């Protein structure tokens, strides 16, 4: 308590205690010398705080200065100098929890915030997480596997082609790595990211202080709302048909996820984080420069952060993106030359077949990247040094990316003709990405799971559009990530079996 406390000293007050014998045998200046350091809250002794707070302190285990007597609810050797009321507070036994009519404990946290027994599903911040969607595909997978020609799994976007030699060689050369890597990433890696953005994405004004390597992009999608300090009352918006982790990440932080359309004027005013995904997963939609700029302007007026997941940007299939490239959120035409409040995420899983390496990065506003780096230092979230070396190598090599793009282009062309022959129609706005977003042609009465079931009977496993939110109902997502042989088998089954509906 400072010398300028607003109330006068009086007999029996805690200011008066500074001149009395010490409690718990500790000496020193002011109140902090009279009781255990563990018994202080904001520089005040326990007894000036509510009994509930004092009882909470008693729950601490033994081993603190002052022998932990007060913490364990026992008499201290000397309680001289305490008023009778204060002595009663410190000596009061810990009471069992009592439940009020509203179901809340009068002592302790509400039931929905109490720890659950091990093995039970724990609602985080009072919000239960959804079931992992892929588990529900098990029956369809079993049915597809029973096909005489075996299953063709086009459900998950897992790369199957070899990791490029340039990455493997860099990994081998960096394999002797006995020390801890840097969370911020090597300077060589950050410079490679900066050069890649300038060369491939049209972003010439990024600095190394605006780059941070991550353990794949999914962990940043899942954790960004929490790392930004969002919580109850904050809104996180994401595309209506979207990768489920945007929703899950908001729930983990206790924020409210809201699926939205492309027009920001219809979005909630309480939005604190905007997720963009261009090209989109699952639908392959691409946002142009004008659309991105409108989102940035809207968010800056409200102090919201914009994060853009751009991991399919090197896979455009239609003009104008095949000629101009897919625009980045960090493009100067979008930002006006200022990255404030903006983050772009990119993964090397798809373009470079590094899904097993967990190699990605986030780039943009140094005022956001810096604090993200500090939190990750404390949490030990570090990309291994050999992986950083592999990332540095592949970012400087465009040849393997072009070769992989051509593989996917060829598989896409094979599947497109086959799905049309089976009576399925591609979403006309699909222009890029790793998937076909299709539905029954001319039919609004065929649901996602009906399509999954029909395709499983032909030995083909796909993802139901409902995995990606209510807006995806009626669609299925067909991945291009299978070998040429398996894609050809799927095309034969689709094209030779007649229309599904």
Automatic annotation (TrEMBL):
Broadest EC class assigned to this enzyme: transferase
PROSITE patterns assigned to the protein according to its UniProt record, in alphabetical order: AA_TRANSFER_CLASS_1
InterPro entries assigned: Aminotransferase_I/II_large (IPR004839), LL-DAP_aminotransferase (IPR050881), NHTrfase_class1_PyrdxlP-BS (IPR004838), OxyQ (IPR019880), PyrdxlP-dep_Trfase (IPR015424), PyrdxlP-dep_Trfase_major (IPR015421), PyrdxlP-dep_Trfase_small (IPR015422)
GO molecular function terms noted in the UniProt entry: pyridoxal phosphate binding; transaminase activity
Chain intervals for the UniProt region annotation (Disordered): 84-121
UniProt keyword annotation of Nucleotide-binding present: no
Cofactor: pyridoxal 5'-phosphate
Gene3D superfamilies cross-referenced by the UniProt entry: Aspartate Aminotransferase, domain 1, Type I PLP-dependent aspartate aminotransferase-like (Major domain)
Compositionally skewed regions (Basic and acidic residues) per UniProt: 98-115
PANTHER family xrefs: AMINO ACID AMINOTRANSFERASE, L-GLUTAMINE--4-(METHYLSULFANYL)-2-OXOBUTANOATE AMINOTRANSFERASE
Protein name (record): Aminotransferase
């Amino acid at each position: 308590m400072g010398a300028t406390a607003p109330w006068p000293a009086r007999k029996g007050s805690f200011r008066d205690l500074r001149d009395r014998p010490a409690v718990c045998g500790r000496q020193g200046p002011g109140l902090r010398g009279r009781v255990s350091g563990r018994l202080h809250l904001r520089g005040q002794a326990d007894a000036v705080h509510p009994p509930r707070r004092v009882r909470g302190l008693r729950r601490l285990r033994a081993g603190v200065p002052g022998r932990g007597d007060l913490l364990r609810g026992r008499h201290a050797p000397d309680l001289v100098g305490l008023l009778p009321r204060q002595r009663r507070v410190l000596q009061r036994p810990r009471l069992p929890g009592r439940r009020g009519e509203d179901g809340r404990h009068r002592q302790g946290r509400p039931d929905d915030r109490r720890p659950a027994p091990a093995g039970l599903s724990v609602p985080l911040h009072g919000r239960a997480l959804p079931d992992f969607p892929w588990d529900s595909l098990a029956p369809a997978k079993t049915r597809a596997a029973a096909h005489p020609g075996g299953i063709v799994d086009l459900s998950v976007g897992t790369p199957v082609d070899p990791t490029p030699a340039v990455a493997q060689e860099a990994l081998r050369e960096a394999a002797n790595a006995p020390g801890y890597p840097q969370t911020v990433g090597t300077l060589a890696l950050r410079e490679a990211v900066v050069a890649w953005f300038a060369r491939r994405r049209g972003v010439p004004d990024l600095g190394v202080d605006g780059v941070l390597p991550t353990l794949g992009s999914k962990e940043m999608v899942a954790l960004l709302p929490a790392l930004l300090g969002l919580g109850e009352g904050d809104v996180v918006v994401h595309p209506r048909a979207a990768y489920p982790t945007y929703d899950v990440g908001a729930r983990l932080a206790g924020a409210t996820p809201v699926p939205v359309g492309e027009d920001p004027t219809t979005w909630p005013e309480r939005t604190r984080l905007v997720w963009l995904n261009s090209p989109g997963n699952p639908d392959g939609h691409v946002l142009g420069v004008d659309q991105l700029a409108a989102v940035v302007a809207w968010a800056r007026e409200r102090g919201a952060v914009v994060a853009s997941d751009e991991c399919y940007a090197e896979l455009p299939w239609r003009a104008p993106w095949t000629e101009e490239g897919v625009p980045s959120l960090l493009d100067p035409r979008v930002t006006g030359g200022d990255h404030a409040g903006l983050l772009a995420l990119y993964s090397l899983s798809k373009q470079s077949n590094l899904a097993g390496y967990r190699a990605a990065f986030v780039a943009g506003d140094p005022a956001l990247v810096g604090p993200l780096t500090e939190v990750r230092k404390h949490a030990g979230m570090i990309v291994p040094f050999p992986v950083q070396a592999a990332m540095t190598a592949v970012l400087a090599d465009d040849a393997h990316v072009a070769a992989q793009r051509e593989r996917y282009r060829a598989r896409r062309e094979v599947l497109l003709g086959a799905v049309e022959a089976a009576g399925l129609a591609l979403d006309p706005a699909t222009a890029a990405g790793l998937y076909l977003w299709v539905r029954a042609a001319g039919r609004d009465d065929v649901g996602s799971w009906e399509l999954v079931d029909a395709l499983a009977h032909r030995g083909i496993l796909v993802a139901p559009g409902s995995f990606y939110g209510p807006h995806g109902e009626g669609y299925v997502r067909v991945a291009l990530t299978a070998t040429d042989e398996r894609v050809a088998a799927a095309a034969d089954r689709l094209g030779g079996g007649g229309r599904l509906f």
